[in-house]
């Protein structure tokens, strides 16, 4: 059994990362590579936790993508029990909390005076920044990925492969993209990426689709991965992680697939490399960062995709999407630790435990503050580690 396959099995057991239309897949933990033990850091930088707060029950094992959203000095957090909370980004003081009466699972997203969150019952709920309802929409399936807000639209992907676009102000439906979902895929959906004229959608079938913002017409598609293998599990490819759009270049990575750079207007491939990740990407300067399915942290050149450095000390620790935090790179793991790496070398220079539960969703960085939500619903804010 390959390491990537064993990692997938442990993901099923530990994080409910897979979904399937057939019977639940079961395996023994004895067949899985154990997470790498952490070792003490030499000359570790000091870490300053600015504040922490309880935001209600976290995603736990229900598979949702609950993550903090930060906008205009406020951190918005949802809980599986249906609460939507707003915290002061500087102090952690609770500003308001409402009960949506929905089992929330996707988001929230916050921008342009709007806060939008999805539920396990397929509801998409929009509020103003004071928690007052604006509009709601019923989607065809559960929403367990964060929606996107930009350019007058809200775009959300349901777990059955349908992607919906709504008018940001009224909630009126604009367009619908329908794509089939394979028998077996990662549980969750990538957040759509709204560009100037096109929206980019990662699919559970391993394809990246560009659609026109105006009417949802398909402009191009690219297969980030090809379904090869002897069974559904080995053939699984899924674009489920964070994509990036930088100066007309689109960067995407898939599970069991590739990392690729594309010209966003045409879908022309600038470069691609075989690589597997269920998390996603971040970028600083001329360097691109990701965490692989095996738990390696990689720094790559944006122009070629060549690997600049590889950090293997966190293998099999089920890492989150890495995020740029000042001059460092931050990533969370399954035990609730946040690790900070040097962007130039990949050396781990600092570590802190945000909580006792794992960190599945991507942390957020705003104004050089890192916001982390663990699976127990603990929200923490960290300053960039000092020297």
Largest sheet: 5 strands, mixed
Query: Number of helical runs?
Result: 1
Helix content: under 10%
What is the terminal separation in angstroms?
43 Å
Q: What Rg is obtained from the alpha carbons, in whole angstroms? A: 19 Å
Describe the structure.
The chain has one helix and 35 strands. 3% of the residues lie in helices and 45% in strands. It is mainly beta. The model is unreliable at 1-31 (pLDDT under 50). It is globular, with a radius of gyration of 19 Å. It has one helix at residues 3-15, and strands spanning 18-20, 49-54, 65-66, 69-71, 74-78, 83-88, 94-99, 104-111, 114-119, 123-128, 133-138, 148-150, 153-157, 162-167, 173-178, 184-186, 193-194, 198-202, 207-212, 218-223, 244-246, 249-253, 257-263, 269-275, 281-284, 287-291, 297-301, 307-311, 323-325, 328-332, 337-342, 348-353, 364-366, 369-373, 378-383. The strands form nine sheets. It has a five-stranded mixed β-sheet with strand order 3-8-9-10-11, with no helix packed on it. A four-stranded antiparallel β-sheet has the order 2-35-34-33, with no helix packed on it. The chain has a four-stranded antiparallel β-sheet with strand order 4-5-6-7, with no helix packed on it.
